[in-house]
Amino acid sequence: MKIKKGNNRIVFTFPFLGIVIKFPIINLFRVFKTVFTGRVEGIRNKKLFKRYFEWSVHDPNSFKYALFRGLLANWSEFRFYRNTKNPFLTPTYFSLLGFVNIQKHGRECQLLQADLWCQLFALTGGKVFDDAHHFSEPHNFCLQKDKLQIFDYGSSRTHKVILEYGEKIVENFNASYCWEEEKKKIKELEKI
Ligand SMILES: Nc1ncnc2c1ncn2[C@@H]1O[C@H](COP(=O)(O)OP(=O)(O)O)[C@@H](O)[C@H]1O
Ligand SMILES: [Mg+2]
Prior knowledge:
- By secondary structure, the chain is an alpha+beta fold.
- It contains eight helices and seven strands.
- The longest helix has 22 residues, at about 65-85.
- Magnesium ion (MG) binds near residues 6, 7, 140 and 152.
């Protein structure tokens, strides 16, 4: 068993059982940071301080976001898989209201960041740029029999890209794509 830490979840991997268990990180430190870093004004100004509580859980400046983003990511991942069964998703089998998720284990993909990003950029006509944070990180993906699958799909931005291009990515992804080679080909073509 290995323990992996993402931005929002802590993940216990059990390759021999074929599953991983994801727990949300509830980050109290992040809440203190929200209050104290650059927001001292918020402590003095009562109205502003109240607003930090009122802001929605989806607002990155709110306390709720700092506390519950891992929980939301877990719950949203489970619901998105259950509702779409998109082949690009690593299956999420179970969620206890986001407190605990069980997902199929996959072997982290070993592609270079540039090779992954450039190919995804080409396959989606640049749409991955809307969620560059997730799509540029090889450790959010695995290769199952040379088919690319994503582990980390808890965000609505990620969902939009997957709904539009998930199937296309699965069908067309080339696991031996090399950006340097592609660049050479483009240069050769330009000479003609
Ligand atoms: N299904 C999985 N199989 C194997 N490793 C995984 C799986 N899901 C996540 N991981 C590992 O755990 C890390 C964090 O998980 P991730 O879903 O990306 O959480 P976060 O939203 O916190 O970034 C990943 O970068 C990956 O290394
Ligand atoms: Mg991640």
